[in-house]
Amino acid sequence: MLILAADQASKWWVLAVLHLPDLGSVTMLPFLNLTMVWNRGITFGLLNGEGRASSIVLAAVALAVVVALGVWLRRAESRLVAISLGAIVGGAVGNVIDRFRFGAVVDFIHAHAWGWSWYVFNVADAAIVCGVAALVLDGMRPKRDSRLAVGSGRD
């Protein structure tokens, strides 16, 4: 819920307070701009420009993924996995809300440095990427087999 609230609050601020669609771009730091992008596609703008029907289909697919992640979340065996899944779900729901409200996802964070530029993204996208990265790192950690632990009562 924290990710969802932060995502929607940041998008509200960018649209209703800053009026970024009218400004186009605002320099915040030498390596960070707020740049308005309406992402009608999926990650990195793929499938962009496929129309309103595409936006609804993408939202439906995202909701199905959220349901599956919710089932996984209920079965999470560690706090890290639960927090990671919560970040992914919160971000996905935030972007689904955009698709239903606007027909596109509100992207506005533009990081760049020394001629390098990343895709414009939002708080939800950042939460999804961080959540997935944490799940991957958690999956790479060696797991301790409780059956082999000394004093586990299984001799």
* CA-based shape: globular
**What is the typical, i.e. mean, pLDDT?**
85
Major sheet summary line: 4 strands, antiparallel
> What is the domain tally?
1
Q: What is the tally of helical segments?
A: 5
- Measured as a percent range, the helix fraction is 40-55%
Strands of the biggest beta sheet: in what spatial order?
A: 1-2-3-4
SS elements, strand count: 4
H/E series: HHEEHHEEH
Distance from N terminus to C terminus (CA atoms, Å) equals: 45 Å
Our Rg estimate from Cα atoms comes to 19 Å
Structural class by helix and strand composition: alpha+beta
What this model shows, in words?
It is built from five helices and four strands; from the N terminus they run ααββααββα. The chain starts with a helix and ends in a 15-residue tail after the last helix. It has helices at 2-17, 20-23, 52-74, 79-102, 123-140, and strands at 25-29, 32-39, 105-113, 116-117. The protein is 55% helix and 15% strand. The longest helix has 24 residues, at 79-102. The protein has one domain (2-12, 38-141). The protein has a four-stranded antiparallel β-sheet. With 155 residues, the chain is an alpha+beta fold. A hairpin with a 2-residue loop joins strand 1 (25-29) and strand 2.
